[in-house]
Specification:
The protein is an all-alpha fold and 100 residues long. Helices cover 78% and strands 0% of the residues. The chain is built from 3 helices and no strands.
Length: 100
Amino acid sequence: MATDALSQLLLLLTSFALAALLWLMLLIARFYHKFTGEVTHHRWFLIPIVAFSLGAIRYSSVDRIGGDPLADLLTASAGLMLAALSVRLFRRMTHHRDTA
């Protein structure tokens, strides 16, 4: 029983840490948009934050770290969207740089 509570606590703490890192990425994208005028779609970073959080809450409520279809779908879609947003932001921020 105590290990279940501990695993739920660690899962939720990890999701808070992930949300903080994603919030930092959102702030970086917003900063770049503000000072360059280029569109970074920084608000779209809220979607993976919410989806990862909902997935963690779902995993915590069913007492499993995997195997729940809804939580798996939420975390997988959040991961794919985060990857796409990160690559897009990286390309947007580095496309004017010389490689030489």
